Fold:
Amino acid sequence: MAAYVVRRLLLMIPTLWIIITINFFIIQTAPGGPVEQAMAQAMGLEGEVLDRVTNANKAEVQTEESNDSGYRGARGLDPEVIADIEKRFGFDKPLSERYWNMIIEYLTFDFGDSLFKSGSVIDLIIERMPVSISLGLWSTLLIYLISIPLGISKALRNGHQFDRWTSTILSIAYAIPGFLFAILLVILFAGGTYFDIFPLRGIVSDNWSELSLMDKILDYAWHMALPVTASVIGGFAALTLLTKNSFLDEINKQYVMTAKAKGLTDREVLYKHVFRNAMLIIISGFPAAFISIFFTGSLLIEVIFSLEGIGLLGFEAITQRDYPVVFSTLYIFTLLGLIMALITDLTYTWVDPRIDFESR
Structure:
């Protein structure tokens, strides 16, 4: 198994390189980059930058004055101003040089400085990381702790009243997006219309450093209650139904009837035979679920509850064409996803020792 782990770790290197390379050339050559953004600000046309870049006719009516800068949004700007903007963002260098500089820097986890935010990229990520870790970790943990036992119970009581009632609740939870639950929680419990019980900003209070250990834990739980609840409600329905269907499919197989015929109790059959087979499909979806909750799934939750996490940072970076932040967040989450996939494979062997990746 050690050789398999080493091979997977080595495979991460070309995988990261290919993903970063493809995204680098797509984003770097896309219109409306940071240079155009800065030019639009210089001309007082920040809100029209995308129209100026994507519509040549609109650019033509601005002025007949032209230059050889190659930027449509540069019409009417002094060439020295354009050169200064290009130098400030590093676009005075050829594309190939920018690419290799990025590769060398990323090998040492040097992500450079943000183009539009003060400070280095790594400092921004570290500053936002506690929010994303809190949302992703607690949401994923609670979703799995709720969904797996509930799905098993539904499979064992398939067609009974418990299964019908829970299926109705799950259908409602599955149909309504998580951010709508978040808005509902704000209206009900965060001073929206009815009760003002929970805070609506941050993961801790301003005086958190002055609190005792127990008060710090309670204050943290108080701030995270609504965001985590919204994430869990929006994510546990699909996993519960997957768990139920997976266990129900295994329960109806021939080997279960054979095991019962040999005198094994229902509990022994469930946890010694059915469990390890049914859990494989659930474990296989863990990396994608974790990354989704950790990054993309938390974006709207972060916006609604005024939480400054990695999801919001990445979204702002994309809209502003803040390339260092975009590439660094992509790099980190790609690496995290590859590591989670390796952990999933190791979990396979723990759940079902018959699986042997080493022999493949």
